[in-house]
Amino acid sequence: MTEHPTTPAGKPTSYSRVTLSRIMTAVDVNLYGTVHGGVLMKFVDDVAGAAAARHSGGTAVTASIDEIVFSEPVRVGDLVHAHAQVNWTGNTSMEVGVKVVAERWDSAEDEPVRVATAYLVFVGVDVGGAPRAVRPVLTETAEDERRYKEAEIRRAHRLAKRRAIQAHRAS
Ligand SMILES: CC(C)(COP(=O)(O)OP(=O)(O)OC[C@H]1O[C@@H](n2cnc3c(N)ncnc32)[C@H](O)[C@@H]1OP(=O)(O)O)[C@@H](O)C(=O)NCCC(=O)NCCS
Questions:
Q1: Start and end of every HotDog ACOT-type domain (predicted)?
Q2: List of residues 6+ apart from 5 with CB closer than 8 A
Q3: Is residue 3 part of a domain?
Q4: How many structural domains comprise the chain?
Q5: Residue 4 included in any domain
Q6: What is d(CA 83, CA 13) in angstroms, rounded to the nearest whole number?
Q7: pLDDT one digit per residue (tens) for the chain, 171 residues
Q8: Does the global pTM surpass 0.90?
């Protein structure tokens, strides 16, 4: 287990792990008859928010959706599970990774299919909405450690992009 530097006592990655499940219905579809991407985005934000709140022990707001990839369509009747965990923590922010899988309604014995992957940044906030310190996440497995390091890469890219755009606008 690796302890990353910050002040309050940390929590292991498994502490924040949470799964939401639901069956997709006819109200969830787009014009093509498959599930609307926005429905999955809301589902992803909900499960990520639950993981962030659990890890940080209080209110956390979505600061950004870093990436969301829809890899396979979801159909009406599919049982969809969204698995989330806190991958990385900064001072007040957390990266939450979400994996969404579908059990096909017409082939329930098959392995669930990965339908989406997302990375979101949440910020712990106090009652006034100001950022508050969040406890560090403690990686438990080699996979957690890989996710932690990849979250750092995404953060570095995000910050570099912001700096480059600011420099461009100032030029
Ligand atoms: C998220 C929010 C609390 C950040 O407040 P802020 O005063 O800009 O915060 P700071 O600049 O001090 O940054 C605080 C942390 O948030 C991170 N952060 C801020 N904006 C971010 C962004 N767009 N993307 C990723 N991280 C961000 C910073 O990197 C910092 O992380 P760290 O403390 O771990 O280093 C504020 O922008 C907010 O309330 N936004 C609205 C959130 C909301 O309502 N979401 C629901 C969608 S309707």
A1: 14-128
A2: 136
A3: no
A4: 1
A5: no
A6: 13
A7: 444 444 578 999 999 999 999 999 999 999 999 999 999 999 999 999 999 999 999 999 999 999 999 999 999 999 999 999 999 999 999 999 999 999 999 998 899 999 999 999 999 999 999 999 999 999 999 999 999 999 999 999 999 999 999 999 999
A8: yes
Q: Tokens at residue 87, please?
A: 């991958």
Domain that holds residue 109: 11-170
How far, in Å, is the centroid of ligand 1 from the Cα of 96? 14
Q: Is residue 5 part of a domain?
A: no
- Which atom number of ligand 1 is nearest to the Cα of residue 131? 3
CATH number for 105: 3.10.129.10
Rounded alpha-carbon distances, angstroms, from residue 130 to 43, 60, 92, 110, 123 = 25, 10, 10, 46, 9
Decide: helix, strand or coil at residue 56: helix
User: Does residue 41 belong to any structural domain of this protein?
Assistant: yes
E strands, the chain, in order: 11-12, 18-23, 60-70, 79-89, 93-103, 113-124, 137-138
Give the span between the Cα atoms of 93 and 97, in whole angstroms: 13
How far apart are the CA of 161 and the centre of ligand 1, in A? 16
